[in-house]
Write a structure and sequence with these properties.
The protein is α/β, with parallel strands linked by helices. The chain is built from eleven helices and eight strands. An eight-stranded mixed sheet has the order 3-2-4-1-5-6-7-8, sandwiched between helices. The chain is elongated. The structure holds guanosine-5'-diphosphate.
Length: about 300
């Protein structure tokens, strides 16, 4: 289960305060040390942990919490609120174009769940907004990638624009956008190539697609299971492409929590969706407050 270790350790850290009518500064210090270790063990970015602990400590010291009524409960509340803040406070909507189509460019490393997420998103738009999305297959390096997108699209009954693997991806996107224009699709979802690691050539290609398509949304898909690697990946993509949002996948697995808790704070970019399974319906809007509650258990 996701966050299992983190939840248990945070609960244990705060349980020790329970039943104390008054919490001393040294009690608080001990609790904060445990919280710090729990977060580091969950693979949360070091600077994020440092800032988080500082905020919680200052708030706990500041507002007569330690001497007030039910200090333990108040500290739990502060931790909850600061976790929420670290993850971005509010849910952030998909960007929308003033005039159709809204263009969404999916980027990410191979295996992160980009193609699956493209399909999930298309289905979500279709069912929730009655939208008519068109998907564009712009990963020309792996023939299997196009087949996979076509299969995903067939399963949810959404059209795919593809020109096989012999055409330059920028040209594919250009022609795909022309088709969307002609057919009045209200959303275009571009599935781009991924690699096992960030490389210059891929980034240049993605930058070229971005320049041509002027996407309203560049959604980076990252695998929550990869912890700090997911954060480094997010930084790499963001530096080059200035992404507009992140999709965190595989939160149904036993991820430790580092990616969920670090990405927003490190990159400044919001997590917009979370993937919680392999089915097409397993995509949810990311709510920082709900995620904080889930982490606290
Ligand atoms: P891509 O290479 O980034 O396009 O990745 P794919 O979309 O092919 O996904 C790679 C694998 O991850 C596939 O087996 C997907 O079914 C799986 N996957 C994607 N998202 C999720 C998720 O949220 N949860 C789980 N459990 N598996 C996922």
């Amino acid at each position: 289960m996701a966050f299992e270790g983190l939840t248990e350790r945070l609960q244990n850290a705060m349980r020790k305060l329970r039943g104390k009518g008054k919490v001393s500064e040294s009690d608080l210090r001990a609790t904060m040390r445990e919280i710090r270790l729990a977060l580091l063990e969950a693979d949360v970015n070091f600077t994020v942990v440092k800032d988080f602990v500082k905020q919680v400590r200052e708030r706990a010291m500041g507002a007569d919490v330690l001497e007030g009524l039910n200090p333990a409960q108040q500290i739990v509340k502060i931790v909850d609120e600061e976790l929420t803040k670290t993850m971005g406070e509010e849910a952030v909507d998909l960007n929308k174009a003033p005039k159709i189509p809204t263009i969404i460019m999916m980027v990410g490393l191979q295996g992160a769940g980009k193609t699956t997420t493209a399909g999930k998103l298309a289905l979500k738009l279709k069912t929730e907004q009655n939208a008519r999305p068109l998907m564009i297959a712009a990963d020309v390096y792996r023939p299997a990638a196009i087949d996979q997108l076509v299969q995903v699209a067939q399963g949810i009954d959404v059209p795919v624009f593809q020109l096989g693997t012999d055409v330059n991806p920028v040209d594919i996107v250009r022609q795909g956008l022309a088709q969307a224009e002609e057919k009045h699709n209200d959303y275009v979802i571009i599935d781009t190539a991924g690699r096992l690691q960030i490389d210059e050539q891929l980034m240049d290609e993605l930058a070229n697609i971005k320049e041509l398509a002027h996407p309203n949304e560049i959604l980076l898909t990252v695998d929550a299971m990869t912890g700090q690697n997911a954060v480094a990946t997010a930084e790499g993509f963001n530096d080059k492409l200035d992404v507009t949002g992140v999709v965190l996948t595989k939160l149904d697995g036993d991820t430790r929590g580092g990616a969920a808790l670090s990405i927003r704070a490190v990159t400044g970019k919001p997590i917009k969706f979370i993937g919680q399974g392999e089915k097409m319906s397993d995509l949810d809007v990311f709510h920082p407050d709900r995620m904080a509650s889930r982490i606290l258990g």
